[in-house]
Amino acid sequence: MTKGKRGEASLVLPREHGVWAMFVVPYLFGVFLVEKNVLQLLAGPGLLCGFIAVNAVLVYMRQPRFARQVLRTLLIFGGVAAVCLVYPLIHNALAFWPLIVMGVFAMASIWFIRRKRERHFVNDLLGIVGLTMLLPIAAALGGGASRTELLTAMALNVIYFTGSIFFVKAVFREKNNHSFHFVGIMYHLLLLCLPFLPQVPALISVIFLPGAVKMAIAAKGIKLPVKTVGIMEIVNVLWFLAGGYVLFAT
Q: Structure pTM?
């Protein structure tokens, strides 16, 4: 949350770096796949503001005492979202059908929130899959991509952020859970082996190598400050974006 002049929260914004990355990366991957245009330029900020507004509603469900801040956030970001999305919706309304799927996953998150289990691994995974639907929206606004390209880009996005879940949870909530560490290590090792499959480029191993290194550090039980983890995640997501650009835009 952002702070007002007196130090009280004035707006409800996502605080985790990973949440912002989970929005930005799939949308950019969709842009990488197709020709760039003004529809994508407007829809990106519009969808981001809409995402912030929805996130504010979810915060209210967990913490009703922030009703005033949530309302202010809804008015500001909901208004910006409406303004930014009018033109893209008029010109290509069918491109936004994945929002229906995102709504279904948001309902699943509400189920976890009401049971005070929003930190559950499955809830995090559902959030990743839901936000991955931004990828086909961006691609459709740019004229559309082939089914193979879309599914490949979407799969890579889900695979990458699932690895991030393993890392962050291994550092904090599951730091003493050796079984969880083992599963996380095996998951990342499998990612490094993907190029052994037919038609999978060797670049995939390079893209996922930093994630494997992070997971190895977490599994060793090395204590990492929150700031350090944040920096590692930012560097890793930039590496992943660069790899995605090489794969899909060149």
A: 0.90
